[in-house]
């Protein structure tokens, strides 16, 4: 039970940058259950490409939902279902492409009186051979999503529906999305979703693909007595690949020194809960301001001293950056990887880049830089501490023409030679930032022995995502 989140806002550093993220459905398996075999379509609302379930299961029958449950706002995946009136257990087999090891698996259900019985069933789901969740409906138009993050042991996954004596199981859609292996790490077992909330949302919209490249679904939630914040957000190589629509809005306690309380209840006695909090600075702040907060769960300290710029990796490649450097980047003391390639940066390579203690990758190629490379950077690179890319890809267009047009331009190797001749002139790049903002810290709190209210059903571990 998450009782208190304490936010002591002391300001925050703000930067802004816009990036465009590539969005492909690579690795997605999107199955619309119950549509004619071998058919496929692109959903007009989400843009997701669905295929029929014919090649994923051998059993069951196709049905349409009753016309009175159809509407323009309903995703196409809910118009048909596959039901399993025969047999206790019926399964789907999802074959996996090699190369991914962790997956989000989502099963979706809407009864829609497909069988004309007017009675919602209740049944169980299995993942592999383990119990996943029970599926229960409030009414015929309830949409139920069950999600789990799972690391399969083999190159296929079974999802099974189990008849528990309360009506034939059915399913509307089954989806699988690859996730980066290093995200959502569980100590053991799989992680079933409890809630994933878009905090600070100013619309009533649930976001998923294409806003979220991993097609997680984010449900809006509103709070009383809070200040809504919004700004721009880009993930810069954040491994969670959080959607900018979700991260660009936030809430803050109305009185700056006040608490933000988030109440959360569970009916499940046996579960462990993982909370993932994602923070992004979206407010404009003064230069030296910082924002700090402490998170408590119940009375227990969960995470202390979250400070604004804790950026480890910043990828501003091809971001249309112009102009000279700024020392904002100097504040990024944790930064390990900085990619500023393919921009229109001018001026010289700033010395402070050599003083970023954790920097192991610096890419400044493809800019209009001039001057000398700081000795500290060259030294670090020589010692194998830094992977440094300065080679000029383009000044006016191509390597050759730029070098022809400006004989003083050179890459790192040739510059070293020139240095011997005491002509150490190098085009390089600079961080014309721009106010870059951010960032995000994904905070993971794991709470054990959570107290509860009611008897629970058989469930696995839960995940809760909160996004500020
Ligand atoms: C059906 O149940 C959902 C919750 O699952 C609820 O939001 C909706 O109002 C209900 N509809 C009717 C017609 O009762
Ligand atoms: C995925 O992460 C786990 C630890 O969380 C590790 O044991 C496993 O080797 C990783 N798998 C791949 C393919 O990187
Ligand atoms: C969101 O829903 C609430 C309650 O249903 C409504 O009052 C509000 O106007 C809606 N906001 C938007 C932006 O649609
Ligand atoms: C909001 O804050 C005001 C003033 O502090 C208080 O009177 C009111 O009860 C609060 N409203 C809610 C819903 O907490
Ligand atoms: C915030 O709360 C503190 C302590 O309750 C109070 O002294 C202060 O006036 C409040 N500030 C604002 C802006 O309401
Ligand atoms: C920010 O901090 C630096 C170093 O402490 C100081 O030189 C500068 O004047 C400060 N800027 C502002 C706006 O306070
Ligand atoms: C930065 O992003 C570009 C394209 O999005 C990619 O080609 C490049 O490898 C990335 N750089 C790093 C250091 O990951
Ligand atoms: C460089 O950036 C421009 C847009 O700023 C883009 O069109 C181009 O493809 C990028 N080139 C490389 C090599 O990434």
TrEMBL record:
Recorded hits in Gene3D superfamilies, A to Z, give: Ribonuclease Inhibitor (3.80.10.10)
Identify the domain of life: Eukaryota
A Pfam family found in this protein is: LRR_8
Membrane-spanning intervals of the chain: 424-450
The cross-references to InterPro entries, in alphabetical order and at most eight, read: Leu-rich_rpt, LRR_dom_sf, Malectin-like_Carb-bd_dom
Leader sequence residues:
1-22
- Residue stretches making up the Malectin-like domain: 31-310
Keywords from the UniProt entry: Membrane, Signal, Transmembrane, Transmembrane helix
Compartments it resides in: Membrane
Claim: Cell membrane is one of the keywords in the record: no
- What is the topology of this protein in the membrane according to its UniProt annotation? Single-pass membrane protein
The name this protein goes by in its record: Malectin-like domain-containing protein
The organism is Xanthoceras sorbifolium
